[in-house]
Amino acid sequence: MLKLRLKRNGRKRQPAYRLVIMESTTRRNGRPVDEVGYYNPITKESYFNKEKIVKWLSYGVQPTETVFQLLKKSNLIEI
Hints:
Layout lengths: L1 E10 L2 E10 L10 E7 L4 E4 L1 H9 L3 E2 L1 H9 L6
Parallel strand pairs: 1-5
Antiparallel strand pairs: 1-2, 2-3, 3-4
């Protein structure tokens, strides 16, 4: 099952995350199927490629809870 989740990068105590499509059994920093954005929790900077995210969600990809909250906050997902 494919998941829309965060992949950590950055230095120690300075996290930055990429928003990626991965198999649910892949380790956190494994090879993604596709990269669809990034999020920096320190500066609150984020970028989400709306076209790619909508495309993957239409294919049935499930976002994790954290990613779901980020997408909801940026008005990409409506409930």
